[in-house]
Amino acid sequence: MNRDILSILVLNGPNLNLLGLREPELYGRQTYADLEDYIRRSAMELGCACEIYQSNHEGVLVDRIQAARGVYGGIVLNAAAYTHTSVAILDALKAVEIPTVEVHLTDIRSREPFRQHSYVSLAAIATVVGKGFAGYREAMEILRNRLIG
Ligand code: CA2
């Protein structure tokens, strides 16, 4: 068994910093700080190291993905609205070749038609939707199982 610690970059896209403050019927009442706590706790329980970063800016997310090369073994990405629009994020993911699991709090497959297409899916090894915060833990588990065994 390989006992290396897996280092994971968790990237969150636009407006996720507003969690808990708007649209609780869709995204729940827990805040972005609660999400960060949940991710840190889950990473620790899974024996992974993680860094969490949120940005409202597409280019900043592209920069973070590019800078992840050689630093992180895996990426967990909720690109939020950029999921459905960003060829730039897709190209960055393809360029760095870091195993990436896509996460969405809600089930984008059963929401509006414009949310049902994901550019991120074209580069992701797996996609987890509709499981709320637990989706982030599942995404880290998928990476750990795939990369560490
Ligand atoms: O379900 C998800 O995780 C999404 O990535 C969330 C994005 C949405 O654009 C995607 O289609 C699906 C929206 C994140 C914004 O979150 C908010 C939270 C509270 C209030 C307003 C927005």
Task: List strands and helices in order, with pairings.
Elements (H helix, E strand, L loop, with lengths): L6 E6 L11 H4 L4 H15 L2 E6 L3 H10 L6 E5 L8 H10 L3 E5 L21 E4 L4 H14 L2
Parallel strand pairs: 1-2, 1-3, 3-4, 4-5
The structure holds ligand CA2.
The site of ligand CA2 has 16 residues, from loops.
Strand content bin: 15-25%
Overall form: globular
Mean pLDDT: 96
Pick out the low-confidence regions. none
| Total number of strands | 5
Q: What gap, in angstroms, lies between the N and C termini?
A: 7 Å
CATH architecture: 3-Layer(aba) Sandwich
Q: Helical proportion?
A: 25-40%
Order of strands across the biggest sheet?
A: 2-1-3-4-5
Q: Identify every distinct bound molecule in the structure, by name, code or SMILES.
A: ligand CA2
Major beta sheet, specifics? 5 strands, parallel
Structural class: alpha/beta
